[in-house]
Amino acid sequence: MSDDRRLAVLRAIVEDYVSTHEPVGSKALVERHRLGVSPATIRNDMAVLEDEGYITQPHTSAGRIPTDKGYRLFVDRLATVKPMSTAEKRAIQTFLDGAVDLDDVVDRTVRLLAQITRQAAVVQYPSLSRAAVRHVEVVPVGGRSALLVLITDTGRVEQRVVELRSAADPAALVTSLTALRTRLNAAVAGHRLQEARDALTEVVQQTPAGEMAVAAEVAAALGDCLTAGLAERVVIAGTSNLAKSGPDLAASLGSVLEALEEHVVLLRLVQEMAEDGGGDGLAVRIGSENLHVGLTETSVVTTGYGGEGRALARLGVLGPTRMDYPTTMAAVRAVSRYVSRILAT
Amino acid sequence: MSDDRRLAVLRAIVEDYVSTHEPVGSKALVERHRLGVSPATIRNDMAVLEDEGYITQPHTSAGRIPTDKGYRLFVDRLATVKPMSTAEKRAIQTFLDGAVDLDDVVDRTVRLLAQITRQAAVVQYPSLSRAAVRHVEVVPVGGRSALLVLITDTGRVEQRVVELRSAADPAALVTSLTALRTRLNAAVAGHRLQEARDALTEVVQQTPAGEMAVAAEVAAALGDCLTAGLAERVVIAGTSNLAKSGPDLAASLGSVLEALEEHVVLLRLVQEMAEDGGGDGLAVRIGSENLHVGLTETSVVTTGYGGEGRALARLGVLGPTRMDYPTTMAAVRAVSRYVSRILAT
DNA sequence: ACTTGGCACTCACCCGTGCTGAGTGCCAGC
DNA sequence: GCTGGCACTCAGCACGGGTGAGTGCCAAGT
């Protein structure tokens, strides 16, 4: 059963390469890890591992480095979890506890992730496709405008100023808006955003003829808000960490930054990871597993957060393929747990 | 009066270096620009320019490159404005016209700037220190909470959910909140944020004893909103352009990104530039003129926007010291004008 | 059947060498 | 004050040999 040892060798190669950033040879391996066999034996194992595509050599007379496939095996079967120290846990907690609202939570989370992993961090805003309307508010502002505020049960707030071109008398406007507000709330409060949007036309039709035009304008804006609310958003931080993480990434940094700035790309990636993780747990994308061209030299680690049973959104980090997966995964998971706990209150 | 020619030489050096990214020598200069004199003459001029600190040579047997001081002179006295083509102007306009609210305007602006200058773009949110409160809204939400919304005359909206621990009877709460809302608006509407914050304590004291506790809670949250509203914000985009703009910047890209992520640093920079521009016009910071360590190899071009007479905030771009100043400056100014026009409506 | 020591081989990397060419500074003459 | 000429400097590049880490393979040992 030298199969066991071969896996041990792969693990050792990954660990050494991650810490030294240099190809690792057979001799160095037996020295640094107590493998109990000679370099020659290791060489045979490495030859097999290379045949199977787990490792490769950058040039003929150099050590081996893991391939994406090698990292994949490492992550799936070899990585031993590194629990965070209690000091770290406490640091996470106190850092996140100061947050005052949802925006602040997200902001702090993304910074925290970037800082403790020393990589780029990504946090997806709590998804609103599963969120419901908590409350709709319509407030007359100035003579001919109204402020529309939409609050969801995830704590997110969308607002918009509506210009009421068809408004007639300011005094009448106030009363008609108040009435409209109650009708709107009755119609949409408690419903999913999608459903709420569909219910809007009905509300308009039930409006007294004289106020119909105004109601239509407000409803249009609210529909707009609901749509905007459905749009997913991501926040990133720690891009400077990527520049510092070695010359290999620095070379392709342009494309990476480009991909990160294209939030659409990121969102699609994150959503895909929600699926291939099989749920809300940790999911890892390694190098070429990322279809997007700019990200083929990076790995992404994400997990769901917020919401028991089914996660509201995902968060994670992005770094060079040769990242320290165990610690990164532990950090991502730990942060996810604390954020979820905070959001639950 | 060889002084004139020396300046022409400096201009030529800057232009050549910006377009080629390579040190420029005397021979190449007379070939590419019709200077009407021999290389030897140019050499003498260059020697003088070097003595005066406008240019320098990276190593003994190489051409000259402009120093920060050289760029400064170029920007101040030699740059000829390059007006934008009408096609470009139209592109700017149509791109910005689609914006639906303030956030969207800022977002589109920063992307647009990054795209047309191929550098990193910075847009400061319309400053609220000069903004006034337009309206305050207090909305009961659920049993024991209220939504607080603050709208400023710059179109910015801050909101917060207040938990009312001291609330007693929900029915009574609604009426007391309505009363509170009118009193709050009377006290703060139309006033500057700073003044509004100071007026809050008075409002609380004038509240009937029974509702005092609730009023205090709401006022505290509003004070919080006002403070948050006073906090300046910046948005950036196009960082990937920096990575693509040559190996020199790429080397120090880490520190640059770090500086850009520290919005505090950026804000201070932007505010300083508002002063040293002597007002709201174009201001340029070149290389070492930026005190922040991470930005000593970059130049920043900003200008005020929004608000006639006195600008609401600033926008601009950041790139390598050897940027094309004339076109960059023209682009920044053009975008600023269109944004201002849009905000004025 | 697996492990091991031995051995020949490969090749990136380092370092010294010499060459080339762009570019300079200076000077004497116009 | 401009110009041509000339000697000089030096980064960059190509060439070449030496070194060493690392490999692949084989034959012998357990």
Structure characterization notes:
Chain A is of the alpha+beta class. In chain A, 53% of the residues lie in helices and 17% in strands. The first copy, chain A, has 14 helices and 10 strands. In chain A, the strands form 3 sheets. The first copy, chain A, has a 5-stranded antiparallel beta sheet, sandwiched between helices. In chain A, strands 4-5-6 form a 3-stranded antiparallel beta sheet. In chain A, helix 1 crosses helix 4, helix 2 crosses helix 3 and helix 5 crosses helix 14. The longest helix of chain A has 20 residues. The first copy, chain A, is elongated, with a radius of gyration of 26 Å. The mean pLDDT of chain A is 87. Chain A binds a DNA duplex (30 and 30 nucleotides) through helix 2 and helix 3.
Q: Which properties best describe this structure?
A:
elongated; 345 residues; 14 helices; homodimer; alpha+beta; DNA-binding
